[in-house]
Amino acid sequence: MNILDVENLNLGFNCENGFNQALWDVSFSLEKGKMLALVGESGCGKSVSAMSILQLLPKTAKITSGIINFEGENLLSKSSKNMQKIRGSKIALIPQDPMTSLNPLFTVGEQLLEVIRIHQNLKGKEAWEKAVKAFEAVQIPCAEKRLKSYPHEFSGGMKQRAIIAMALACEAEILIADEPTTALDVTIQAQIMNLLEQIKNERNTAILLITHDLALVREHADNIAVMYAGKIVESAPAKEFFEHPNHPYSIALLNSLPANRDKSLETITGQPPSIQQRIQGCKFHPRCKDCMEICTQEVPPEYKVSENHISACFLNDGFNRKSD
Ligand code: SF4
What we know:
Elements: E1 2-15, E2 18-31, E3 35-39, H1 46-54, E4 61-70, E5 73-74, H2 80-89, E6 91-94, H3 108-120, H4 124-137, H5 143-146, H6 156-169, E7 174-178, H7 186-203, E8 206-211, H8 214-217, E9 223-228, E10 231-237, H9 238-243, H10 248-255, E11 303-306, E12 309-311, E13 320-321
Parallel strand pairs: 3-8, 3-9, 6-7, 7-8
Antiparallel strand pairs: 1-2, 1-4, 4-5, 9-10, 10-12, 11-12, 11-13
This protein binds iron/sulfur cluster.
């Protein structure tokens, strides 16, 4: 069951050279109890898509069209006051750097209690018990003692667990995790991913995981959406995606993973375009080894290559189009 639907989101930035479009008809859905991994290189638009949901965009950004449906309402038509209520209590953000969310001057417990007071309207013993339970749920040992610690007394992994505890204490229905493990050691990365998966399964929470790391999501994501230059180029259930990737960009990403290097190490030549660059046709064509003439002239439509598997590549001409 879908809890959130992003439909045909178009967004751009007002820059010195004028308005530059950064998202092109981005559509994806989050299901309760499932993890969607939005994957792509840095600057492809995955974080901007996530921040659009929370309405935490820079002033220069402008959404030109689209709908973000949550609980039957379009979040894009909500006032900033209403969005403030939704952020944290219903949809919570787990940032790349937990220190952006933790104030070094207050104990982690004080900050967690404040969040519980605002979003759950609890005080005193009740709030404290909720905070302890949240710390226990994210497997922070000696929860009561650690609540009295300051952020600098926590390791990177523990800080990230504390942020996740805040989302749990508020009973958020959606977690948006923006590169949540990038700043952590590999072993801690695995622990945080396991924790997110446990939360998803036990609490039926929907998780949107933003990442550049396909290897990280192989074991954990239920669905994958690959972004390139502001557009979703392929989306599929994770098992289908890893067994039968379709889009040349996805295939190149997968072939560059260490686990696949016994085949032959593939690198993707060139760089992704900046939002100022105007590329006619398929935006991946300057880097695509399968590029055909049509790719340089026309934007590929989305083809339905199998049930729930969409790929925007002319190599699929002959399959039904998603819009058919
Ligand atoms: Fe490559 Fe053409 Fe497919 Fe784009 S549409 S990914 S250029 S083959």
